[in-house]
Amino acid sequence: MLFVSQTPSSGLVYGLGKTGILAKVSIVDAVCNLLLSVALVKPLGLAGVAVGTGIPMIGFSLFLLVFANRLVGGSVLVYLRNVLPIFAICISLQVATWFIAGEIDLGSYAKLAFWLAVLYPPQILVLLFFGFVRPERALIARTCLQAAGLR
Q1: Based on the number of CB atoms within 10 Å of its own CB, is 13 exposed (0-12), middle (13-18) or buried (19 or more)?
Q2: What's the rounded Cα separation, in Å, for the pair 29 and 51?
């Protein structure tokens, strides 16, 4: 989630032409990912590969957060004050989904599709409500209606 939340930051960095530093950090990220994944695959199996990928992604995201804020003269603390409550909601909803999913039979693609259709729309609605202010929600609603040909 942290990595995805930094997508606008990377677009900003690219748009401001600061691609050199981003390329260097991406190379460091890739090398760390490879080394950690190889080191952790034997003792932890596939979970080791996930951890070996996740740690560099977190580091890259944190770098991007600080770097993008410095580029625009923003405050990391203000950014975190606005994002952390939504991040906490996302984590809570995802943990609840994992517990529910652990108790149900997902033995086929049809069952998986059904439960995804049941479990994730409420999460999306909660995030839309808490993650956006009223004008942003109205813009999202208009855009969705236009895309669906209903407006």
Answers
A1: buried
A2: 13
